[in-house]
Structure formats: C-alpha cells, structure tokens
C-alpha cells in the first residue's frame, strides 16, 4: 500500500506538466487562429493593403500561386484581384491618339569637341552642377574617336556622382550612341532606366535559334551587334520551365510578322516606320516596323493609367516608353531580393516614366525575365535561377550600336 501511494505522489507533477503543455498549446493555437483571422479577414486599411499586395504578387507568378491559394479563401483572393480585372476592363479599346515626336535639330551623337556646347540642351535630364563637378574631378573620358563615354554601370560598380534633375544617380553616359542610364532607389526597389535619344536605333531582335530555343538578352544583343538590350515578349512558360523558344502574342521584327496577336486584354506595342511608339489594339498591324504584345498600359497620351499595385502586386519589372522628344525609355526594376530590391508596383513604373517625360509607356514581361544588358555585360540583377545572365527568352528590345 505504501509503495502504491509513493507512485501516486510521483505521477502528480507529470500530469500537471502535461496539462501545462496542453494549455500552452491551446493558447498558441488560439493566438495563431486570431492572427490568421486578422490577417485574412480584417478591414484595417494597413492590413488590407498588404494582404492585397501579397495576394496580387503570388497570383502574378506562374509557379508560386500556391503561396496564396494554399491558405487564403478563394473569395478573398477574387476580391483582391478585382482591381486588376477592373483596370483591364478600363483599358479595353484604348490606344494612343494621333501623336508625333519632335527630334532635336542638333545631333546628340557627336564627338565631345562638337557636342560639348550643346550637351545640356540635348541631354536635358543631366544636372549641370554635378556633371561639371564630376568632369572636374575625373576628367573627360573620351573613346578613341573622341566621344564622351562614361560607364560605371557594372553590378560591382557604384555609378557616378552625376545626378539627373530628377535626383537619380547616373550610371552611364554614352554620347556615341546617345544613351544615358540612371539608377533610382526608392522605397523597396532599385530601378535602371536607359534613355535612348534616337528611336530609329531601337528594334525587336530575335534569339539566334528562335522557334527552337530562346537565348539570354546578352546573347541576343551580341548576336545583333546591339549596345543595349532589355527583355521584350512573354512566352509559353509551363511551371516556370519554358525555354523561351517563341514569343507569346504579336511579334514583328524589321517589318516581318513572325506571330499574330493573342487578343484578349493584351496590347500591341511597337514603333511605326516613323519611329513613333504606338500602343493599343489594331486590326491592321502593317504600319509597325517592330512590335510585341503585353499589358497593362502605364501612360497613355501623357496620362497615368495605373496607380498603386493595380492588381499586379510587387514584382521585378520591365517597361518601354517614349517621350515627345522621341527618346525611348527602357526600364528595368530588380526584385525578389529582400534587403536589396523586392520589386515595384505598376503605379511606381508609371511614375518613373512620367518623371522622365513619357508620353506613352507600357509594361512588358517581368518577373524572372527582367534584365538589362549594356556594353558587353548584364547590369541588372536578374531574379532568375541564372543570376548572372537571366533566362532564355525569344527576343529583346535592342539599341543598335553606332
């Protein structure tokens, strides 16, 4: 009997401990349940905003939609995506109005001895004070033919001390090819914008083995003798493992139509034979010299067409635009790299374009496809598995070297 009583006394602390663990577990589960309910169902503006962006970002990928669908009710997802469908509906039937570009009367691509007096007029985004200070400290960087070429755009370089009037850092100035590349760091993103003075230099170039397998933007650029390139068309990409063999939707290169439009909410975008960027839906595509197809429109006839995330979340981005001066704006935003750059919203893309006087601008394929090449190297930081060169793609917007 005494032995039995001792056993009973020894078991009581064990029972208490189990009950304590069970009680703590229940409390933790209740707290998690409460947090889940707040995160998923709360109408508090801050929570609702970031829940929506989270859903948009996950649903905007090909392979990671499960990050939303696995634990968020379908009704909540559909509500979050309503904004995207609304924007697409609003943009149905929209196209650029009748507009023209006014190229500068002076040639911006001249040796420095002939360009110097007109530089600030032709490269109007450059801040005079910071540019003069840079030349005073570093001297004039001239190539063998006397063109001013400043290139601090490599990923292991920090750019220059030159600023634009918009307050962004200048990474490169290439007066042989009429190109300025700037970097914007704002909020949670890092963007690179190439400003190309002569729109006649910009075209759609195909991957060398187009139709069989795609190629990196660097390989496409070098195959066509281009000085600069960014990704262009989307492509069939099952489970994120497509080989970039062929473009999705309309593709016209040097006047040759290689694939037809997919229609739906996609927009045609490209340059006509007068080097003017046109965006919209067109029954006759014969006026394009180079064109692809994507969405949504960012800027139309000088008006911002999207604000905030607009249903597309935060992602690495690519975009193309043109100002009234004819300058082509080629934009890349790095992403999916917390602590460096997570990406940008459609509204942020539009704002960058407008800051640099875009009259027309449109989003291109983004995500792991976004990449920028310049003078023999990739200068952006792709989010693709291949972090150095990016994915294989069907084509690219290229700037022909002079």
| Percent helix | 25-40%
Number of helices: 9
Estimated share of beta-strand residues: 15-25%
Q: Per the principal axes of the C-alpha atoms, what is the gross shape?
A: globular
CA-based gyration radius: 26 Å
Structural class: alpha+beta
Extended strand count: 19
Name the poorly predicted regions. Answer: none
Which sequence of strands runs across the widest sheet? Answer: 1-2-3-4-15-14-16-12-13
List the secondary-structure elements in sequence, H or E: HHHHHHHEEEEEHEEEEEEEEEEHEEEE
What is the residue-averaged pLDDT?
A: 91
Number of domains: 2
Distance between the termini: 103 Å
Question: What about the largest sheet?
Answer: 9 strands, antiparallel
Question: What are the key terms here?
Answer:
402 residues; 19 strands; 28% helix; nine-stranded antiparallel sheet
Question: Can you walk me through this structure?
Answer:
The structure is a single chain. Helices cover 28% and strands 24% of the residues. The protein starts with a helix and ends with a strand. A hairpin with a 4-residue loop joins β9 (267-272) and β10 (277-280). It has helices spanning 2-41, 45-59, 66-69, 74-91, 112-115, 119-122, 128-138, 217-223, 346-355; strands at 149-151, 169-174, 179-186, 189-196, 202-206, 226-231, 251-253, 256-259, 267-272, 277-280, 288-294, 297-300, 303-304, 317-323, 328-333, 358-363, 372-374, 377-378, 395-400. The protein contains 9 helices and 19 strands. The protein has 2 domains: 2-88, no CATH class; 95-102 and 164-400, no CATH class. The chain has a 9-stranded antiparallel beta sheet, covered by helices on one side. A 5-stranded antiparallel beta sheet has the order 5-19-6-17-18, with helices on one face. The chain is an alpha+beta fold.
